[in-house]
Design goal:
mainly beta, 14% helix, globular
Length: 175
């Protein structure tokens, strides 16, 4: 399942870059805000405005507290598109979530909660007790991503990977 997860997350990141036609320049340098997220009843097209279950705010990944100092610096290409992350265990059974329309909705910030930036309808093929869903851009935010919902007895673990928008490439003169 771990390899499958890595492939899907990679596809989501590359798709976000390809869809936006964006450049990766200095993407890691931009500060990311916390993005509240929730599970809602309904679909992205017909969302119940009252959240059913809050998820942990989506933030940049941080090194573990016990990580060695060398592990706390970005590795590889500094132009890599940042991916924000959240993981939450919710008191909802995955089968119950799938029994009626539900969606994951992501907000711009706690201060600007009325602005939705990404949403994904919960549904699809369950593989190894995990359900991957796409999170589509809303309101020209530039954000998209993937969420994984995994069975955990009577609970569900929800992992959200949100791809930040990147700047459009500068025009190159041609002769």
């Amino acid at each position: 399942m771990g390899q499958f997860r890595s492939v899907l997350i990679g596809v989501a990141v590359l798709s976000g870059v390809a869809i936006s036609g964006a450049s990766l320049v200095a993407a890691q340098d931009e500060a990311a805000a916390d993005h509240p997220a929730h599970i809602h009843e309904g679909s992205c097209a017909d969302l119940n405005p009252n959240p059913l279950e809050p998820l942990t705010n989506i933030i940049p990944r941080e090194p573990a507290e016990d990580a060695e100092e060398a592990d706390q610096e970005p590795q590889g290409a500094l132009t890599a598109v940042p991916v924000l992350y959240s993981e939450t265990s919710v008191e909802l059974n995955l089968d119950d979530i799938l029994a009626a329309p539900h969606a994951i909705n992501i907000l711009e910030s706690p201060e600007n909660a009325q602005n939705y930036i990404a949403c994904g309808d919960i549904g699809g093929l369950i593989i190894d007790d995990g359900l991957y869903i796409g999170l589509g851009e809303l309101n020209d935010s530039g954000y998209n991503g993937v969420a994984l919902l995994e069975r955990d007895d009577d609970k569900t673990t929800v992992s959200v990977y949100l791809v930040e928008p990147v700047e459009a490439p500068a025009a190159t003169p041609t002769s």
